[in-house]
């Protein structure tokens, strides 16, 4: 068995999670057949994985470029002060910005790393100048534009 932060999962659970990471729309009967388990037993395992929070939800993965979001950027942000109010205000503001796909509190020379998507350079400038930089407490912002994605996945390496 493999220990995770919230539960113990066995090899069958791992296989279910691997299958669902590749195709979240796969029918229960198909999953059951692939893992050599009955459909009711498979359904019960999936339900348990959902209840334990290992499966947080099911989504459609939209192709960013085909949806018109040509620029993927990584933005590093430093705050002037690390007072609770400043940090909380920054975090709340960032969570309301639809361009921000991910926000990570990090170690090193910067405080936050943001994964940002925008349609074009003008949208990037607008985002930086009107949304991010004016936030109270923001000291420095450094932006890197992604030239090409070498690998992008949502699958965890469970096995």
Quick summary of this structure?
The chain has 159 residues and is an alpha+beta fold. Helices cover 36% and strands 21% of the residues.
Going by helix content, strand content and strand pairing, the class is alpha+beta
- Name the strands of the widest sheet in spatial order: 4-5-3-6
Count of domain modules: 2
Shape: elongated
- Encode the helix/strand succession as letters: EEHHHEHEEHE
How many strand elements?
6
Number of helices: 5
Mind telling me the CATH superfamily name of the largest domain? Lrp/AsnC effector binding domain/regulation of amino acid metabolism (RAM) domain
**What is the typical, i.e. mean, pLDDT?**
94
Using only C-alpha atoms, the radius of gyration works out to 20 Å
Task: Supply database-style keywords.
159 residues, alpha+beta, Arc Repressor Mutant, subunit A, Alpha-Beta Plaits, 2 domains, four-stranded antiparallel sheet, two-stranded antiparallel sheet, elongated
Record the SSE blueprint:
Blueprint: E1 2-3, E2 8-9, H1 11-22, H2 28-35, H3 39-51, E3 71-79, H4 84-95, E4 100-105, E5 112-118, H5 121-132, E6 138-145
Antiparallel strand pairs: 1-2, 3-5, 3-6, 4-5
Architecture overview:
With 159 residues, this protein is an alpha+beta fold. The chain has two domains: 2-51, Orthogonal Bundle (Arc Repressor Mutant, subunit A), CATH 1.10.10; 71-145, 2-Layer Sandwich (Alpha-Beta Plaits). Helices cover 36% and strands 21% of the residues. It contains five helices and six strands; from the N terminus they run ββαααβαββαβ. The protein has helices spanning 11-22, 28-35, 39-51, 84-95, 121-132, and strands at residues 2-3, 8-9, 71-79, 100-105, 112-118, 138-145. The strands form two sheets. It has a four-stranded antiparallel beta sheet with strand order 4-5-3-6. Helix 2 (28-35) crosses helix 3. The termini are close together. The mean pLDDT is 94.
